[in-house]
Amino acid sequence: MGVIKSYRDLEVWQKAMRLAEVCYKATEEFPKREIFGLASQLRRAAVSIPSNIAEGNSRTSRPAYLNHLSIALGSQSEVETQVELASRLNMIPPDRAQEMLALAGQVGRMLHALIASLERK
Length: 121
What we know:
The protein is an all-alpha fold. The chain is built from 4 helices and no strands. α1 (11-27) runs antiparallel to α2, α2 (38-58) runs antiparallel to α3 (62-88) and α3 runs antiparallel to α4. Helix content is 76%, strand content 0%.
């Protein structure tokens, strides 16, 4: 990877944005009764991941950056849990849920690696 000039250059941010897009599209198919329930919760958690990566990267201290990455990691776990629940409730088809969980897993692993890298410095 080249020089990181912006959070937009981070592959983890790019993947997290993709995950947020996929979550938004998936929740469009949820029952209307869930618009303020699980659909809203899943969307907020998904948006929180790239948002916290971006905000943390823009902070001037490493501890602040790590804190935001930790929040992003928590939101990533929320997304996995909410996708699993939506799948169990038949709101997301199994193949789509697996795709979403795989992408969320990639984002989680990338966040763990970035956190470990920053902690070593």
